[in-house]
Hints:
alpha/beta; TIM Barrel; Rossmann fold; Immunoglobulin-like; 23 helices; globular
Amino acid sequence: MTQSLTPLEKAALLSGENVWQTRAVPRAGIREIFLSDGPHGIRKQGGSGDHLGLHSSEPATCFPPAATIANSWDPQLGEKIGAAIGAEAVALGVDVVLGPGLNIKRSPLCGRNFEYFSEDPRVSGAFAAAYVRGIQSAGVAACPKHFAANSQETRRMVTDSVVDERTLREIYLTGFEMAVREAGPKAIMSSYNKVNGYYAHENPWLLTQVLREEWGFDGVVVSDWGGSNDAVAAIRAGGTLEMPAPGWDSVLQILTALEDGSLSEDDLTSRAQEIADLARSLPDKQDRGTFDTQAHHALARRAAGESAVLLKNEADTLPLALGTRTAVIGDFALTPRYQGAGSSLVNPTRLVTGVEATQRSGLDVIGVAQGFVRNGVHDPALVAEAVALAERAEQVVLWLGLDEISESEGLDRPHLDLPANQLRLLSELAQGETPIVVVLSGGSAVDVKWMGDAQAVLHGYLCGQAGAEGILDVLTGEVNPSGRLAETYPQRIEHTPTAGRFPETGSRVDYLEGPLVGYRWYLSAGIDTALPFGYGLSYTTFEYSNLTVDDAGAHFTLTNTGDRAGAEVAQLYVHRRSPSGVLRPVRELAGFAKVQLQAGENRRVHIPFDQYTFRHWDASSGSWETESGQWQLHVGANAEDIRVQANYNLGGTVGAGTGAETQLRELVDTVLSASAGESARAQSGTHSVGGSPKRRRREINLNDPLMELSEARSPLARLAATALRRLLTRAEAKGRPDLNLLFLSGMPIRDLAKMSGGAMNLEMAQQLLRLVNGRHVAGLSGMLRSGLRYRSYTRRTREQFRSLSVQNPTQSRAEEIRS
Length: 819
């Protein structure tokens, strides 16, 4: 179909016309495609668009983010949310939903963990596939992201993730593989970072060998916004669409490469065909309609309730009895923190606060107190007011959590602590006699040593626009809590497998811990956790019994031994029992089932085996293998609470070996030694996590971030870097992340061209580099000359693109355009 297109038309299809739209070729029946953020709701901007959520967007349902929904351990719920998001995309004129996000939570300090499902690839893949199926059921395209090994926000656009192939495939790619194989997404977004030396959007091993040839993906690979480095290299490697809007500069580079033979016509045609196929698969632009805001709000409420995790319930403090005199305390009850900060920011159709939900719940609200200010400053008057209110109540519902500056796209967290002023308030309230129920808000793991001051703790994570209602459903017993943590809570950040090495502040990120991520690390290293992976309490109790295993999977009986209906998340883990030649974690999740049971009811539960259950990647043979021998199957309530186990003899593809135990111990020792060394250097002041090394004057290049202009030879460049740093400091002091400044500080210089909407091209950026590197006159004059040439080229190319006819379908015009 694209054979009738000219090279110019094909090239023009492969980059955005503006921030959110691709170019159209009406004569070939290829319409423009509108892309929009949407991991947990549609962010469709009207008027002037941006990719950071700075400008307002049209109202849409704000569902709980991925980190919250993963705690439901219910992919069917995820599919329902995906279907609702897809329906809203159709109604709002969005063709490609940029989500879900499924990067692995390598460290609890990643500032964007709220947008990702889990530390485990099985959980991440199951939910990603569910969301894709749901979104695409409406006819629009889902675009899972960020492919791949995108694990930190610090220097996210310029770092190189160095990962051995086995770890990369088993941990960081398996979730994407599940999404592709099980749900068939029409698009995938590549990540900013390099993967083993190649930018993800131009990585032939990642995009062609693995994604397209092995997994069978035949859709569009979209660059993250500003994540394209070399347009020609991307096309050769399997990258399709460069976003947002590099003007006509990339088109010229593509046409030039065609003429000099460094790019084949077949590769260009294949990428253009992917865009054309996507455009023709989408709903008619005129066939839009509306969505049911009330039904979607109700779904968001249900999702929040089913995803909330009960962390503590001393002496059955919960559920709360209706009519009880209740004090509502905490700034988050007044102004909820219900979603993360960044490009995923949704403008909700409505928003219910904790105060409003409590007042409607049947509890007797005797008063509301702010208790603390969000920016962390201690306010004795607010504390005194809260303590006085608590003394008059029969129970306190205290809303605590992470504020906006604590976790955000573009930032990594320096620690796991809740703000000190919140913990001080909790300590003061705990001195009284009134029982305290803490409702916790936040998108990722936190230090929980303070839980001793509360009788009950319910973690709502970031619970969306209807989250407060869902939380009150759980607090009052309308919903029996069934959420389970999809990530591990460490006792101390020093216990994590990336301690002292996260985030990396240099250009290289070494994944020294290999496959020992999350619970795999804690179990293998013998380190106690604060809250284990899969943990969560219920208002009822469950008993596991009679585990049997056959070639189809694990079968066991689950009984609700309590006095109320509830749901249990049964988790299947595998352990290699006989001698092994392959390094393995002590225990790995192999499947799960969420089972709803009435009081006293029992059910036979089956968790099936699949292609992922026992496999490991053998780099020497370049294939997936399974080891023959005896395996132990563990079934339980979380990674550390195994209730029943049984042995299973597997006839694999390779025989048993030896040496795995030694390899595991050596890897654990290596990680511990690296962490200890980094910690020692930090204490001595030679290195600081998140800090900067001593500045030196050096030659700046196109792929250095703007923050490194502080090292440039030009005093003008250093002055600009100083101004940017001061603006960031001021924004941080206000307690809210400035996403524009965060993006600018980490943006490579090449993106001055890639994201200018055509105002600047790569040649101009290279001339700017001459100025930055101290050659002021040459750089400035070069920019002016390049700018004039580019302006003339842009005008001619735009006119030619609009006036093309089908008379000369293969005629190359690159030389004429450049002249």
